[in-house]
Amino acid sequence: MKxxxxxxxxLEFNSIDELNDDDRTLLLKAKEAAKNAYAxxxxxxxxxxxxxxxxxxxxxxxxxxxVFPVGxxxxxxxxxxxxxxxxxxxxxxxxxxxxxxxxxxxxPVPPCGSCRQAMIEAESRHNQPLRVIMQGEEGPxxxxxxxxxxxxxxxxxxxxxxxxxxx
Length: 167
Ligand code: THU
Description:
Layout lengths: L10 E3 L7 H15 L9 E8 L4 E5 L12 H12 L5 E9 L13 H14 L4 E4 L6 E4 L12 H7 L4
Parallel strand pairs: 4-5
Antiparallel strand pairs: 1-6, 2-3, 2-4, 5-6
Helix pairs in contact: 2-3
The chain binds tetrahydrodeoxyuridine.
């Protein structure tokens, strides 16, 4: 038997002022996007902003539905919109944030597992690392420089390619 240990790395910042211009702009766009979330059921308004390699920013917010599973997370709204409109543009960064209903969110908002899997696809599709910037309404900001940190032991298209006729 062998025991393996993985190392995950993150950058942590105390304030948005410490971020570089690109990351700060993207996070501010995500904060704007969160205000337009449609979240009448959870009252948890999530905003996401994706930066394309050409510098364009595409935003998304969570879109809920009376049939709960139909709703979609902010991250996937942004990613899918970016990929639908600009299929040849790699997505180089994604900022995620949220607005709570009871108290202010003071810790970084972690993307759900399904969104992480969608981010993996965006990364492997263009073979380009995806930077993920996370913050609540206030408090620390954490940045993951590639998806390996958010979802190790990934199931991605290279795996399918190796064993099937797909991808
Ligand atoms: N949500 C997101 O938009 N992104 C995430 O990564 C976590 C959860 C949304 C889904 C739902 O509309 C609400 O937040 C509560 O789960």
